[in-house]
Amino acid sequence: MAPVTLNSITKRWGTFVAVDSISLDIADGEFLVLLGPSGCGKSTTMRMVAGLDEPTSGEVLIGGKVVNDLPPGARDLAMVFQNYGLYPHMTIAQNIGYPLKVARVPKAERERRVREAAERVELAGLLDRKPSALSGGQRQRVALARAIVRTPQLFLMDEPLSNLDAKLRVSMRAQLKHLQRELGTTTIYVTHDQVEAMTMADRVAVMRDGRLQQVGAPLEIYNRPANAFVAGFLGNPSMNLIEVDVSDGRVRHPRFSIEARDVRLSGPAILGQRPEDMSVVNSGEGDFDGEVYTAELLGDSVLVTTRLGDELIAVKADKSISVSMGEKVGFRFGRSALHFFSRETGERIG
Ligand code: ATP
């Protein structure tokens, strides 16, 4: 186990800045998720921690020691990648035991530790097979077993679940999280899947265009996004973002005007509200009336959308409501969960 510190790390490819001066302290035993859209620099950040890419500037510290000059093999970390990286000609036991063989661990101890690691990920019965004779989920668990067999200081995982089908992903997510808790190993986990981030992370670091946008516990980020980008990236469907004008304690839009007494700002703004904080009411009884554009039964709720100017507004309504496409209904904002962002910078302003 070890804390990890990123000290203003930057990675440039020619003139392109892939990672722009990122500083981050990851605590001993923490599960930190790097989250962001494709190309935002998550993998590059992780590769710099791994030693696979060299920072253009800045320092990486593992266990309090600067590791910039150490090759990956000397950093005492284990990596799990999307494509698992298993050796096809080796058996599962050989695959799992490979890091121990490289480290010249004697055969008897190697066999014992391979068995233990395989039992932890429920693969004990498959040790003599080759990877080609395993399912995707089983291969994923082999990659995990190979990572834990050495009890490294640090796990680095880059989209390790993205090749699995939806159901398996959910169950592997839980297993992986459980395993990390049990082992207490500091983990950096890269994903663009916000559900994975929300469910697994102790803290989430949201990235965009090579920069950190916000770092915090999942609920903290969900409940109080630092800017409109983070607000729009988390949540499914994501937060509604509506251009409004605020003055004299009122929020004005061509289609509605609502009171927002606690809001001190004034001028153009972006109003944010999550779909679950809005409600569908009778026509004439809400903040604005609109036609139902779609109504989808989600099981535990009904997702109702309506057009507001050029935008589609989404509302997660109670599953007991019955509305149909084209019907005119009322939409109401939940007053206690209004978010405001600057139209210029996107930063939270209220
Ligand atoms: P994804 O989720 O798609 O893997 P990511 O957030 O992990 O994306 P990175 O792989 O870190 O993104 O890439 C960040 C940016 O750096 C991208 O625009 C990518 O094209 C660029 N990049 C990555 N590696 C190189 C390289 N070797 N040479 C030039 N540009 C690179």
TrEMBL record:
One of its GO terms (molecular function) is ATP hydrolysis activity. PROSITE patterns: ABC_TRANSPORTER_1 (PS00211), ABC_TRANSPORTER_2 (PS50893). It is a peripheral membrane protein. Keywords: ATP-binding, Cell membrane, Membrane, Nucleotide-binding, Translocase, Transport. InterPro entries: AAA+_ATPase (IPR003593), ABC_transporter-like_ATP-bd (IPR003439), ABC_transporter-like_CS (IPR017871), ABC_transpr_MalK-like (IPR015855), ABC_transpr_MalK/UgpC-like (IPR047641), Mo/tungstate-bd_C_term_dom (IPR008995), NA-bd_OB-fold (IPR012340), P-loop_NTPase (IPR027417). GO terms for cellular component: ATP-binding cassette (ABC) transporter complex, substrate-binding subunit-containing. It is found in: Cell inner membrane. GO terms for biological process: carbohydrate transport. Residues 4-234 form the ABC transporter domain. It comes from the Bacteria. Belongs to the ABC transporter superfamily. This is ABC transporter ATP-binding protein.
